[in-house]
Amino acid sequence: MKKLALIGIAVLAMALVAGCGSKVKVWRPDGSPGYIDMQGKKFLVMPADMRYLPGDKLKLAAALFGGFIAEFGENGISLQPIQPMLEKVGLGDLSWKLARGLVHAAFFHHSSQWDSCGGEDYSVVPNLVKTLVEKVAELLGKPDLKFDYIVVLHIDSRGAGTIPGTLKLRVIGGVYDPMKDEILVAVDWDQVTAEDALLAEMATIGPKAVGLMMGKSPEKKEAAAEGTAEGTTEGTAEGTTEGTTEGGAAAAE
Q1: What letter would DSSP give residue 91?
Q2: Dist. CA 121–CA 59, nearest whole Å
Q3: pTM
Q4: How far apart are alpha carbons 132 and 134 in whole angstroms?
Q5: 145-166 confidence digits (pLDDT tens)
Q6: Do 200 and 221 lie in a common domain?
Q7: How far apart are CA 175 and CA 186, in angstroms?
Q8: In a domain, 7, yes or no
Q9: Are both 155 and 36 inside the same structural domain?
Q10: Range of the domain at 242
């Protein structure tokens, strides 16, 4: 019996840590409306990038990118298919470098400008992005390609979690406006995931990241609040009325 109880506690602990993490950090520049309007905008979606994760990298990358690109619908322009070509022109590591650079400029320098970043790792990013902008239409075979923003997501493993069978993950990324050379938003969070749930977890990270990056317009927030309020009011009123009537009838009988 004691053994069964210990097993139950272990299973519960594993369930609790799967996908749990520290506080999510979201950075936007001063003057930002707090959201990115996707209406009519086109996003270059950088290839999925991850490092030091165990398991089948192709399957993990497919799950991560699938959930990520799906959130953009027709607004997204996938660069995943041309990853081999990006490597040939020296842009194979751009997803990783761009994600790191966005987060470094935003959270360490509180700046939307690359000029704030010192060090070779970050100073090369603008030129790499410039090369991407110049070559992406040719690489995709779309000479008339037009886009507004570049969006990127990267995951690193930070080693084993405190509970056996778990991993610590760091998720970083953001949205960059190459025309204005400005960072619009950066996100950064850690989470702990059970190793045997890693593939399934990859599919959930993309949608979460896009939700954080895009934010909600005041209109959407207001609509969501109204919907919640209406649902709560209706549910409470109906439940109270039904409960009182039935209870009253039972008492009378």
Answers
A1: -
A2: 29
A3: 0.80
A4: 5
A5: 999 999 999 999 999 999 999 9
A6: no
A7: 7
A8: no
A9: yes
A10: 217-247
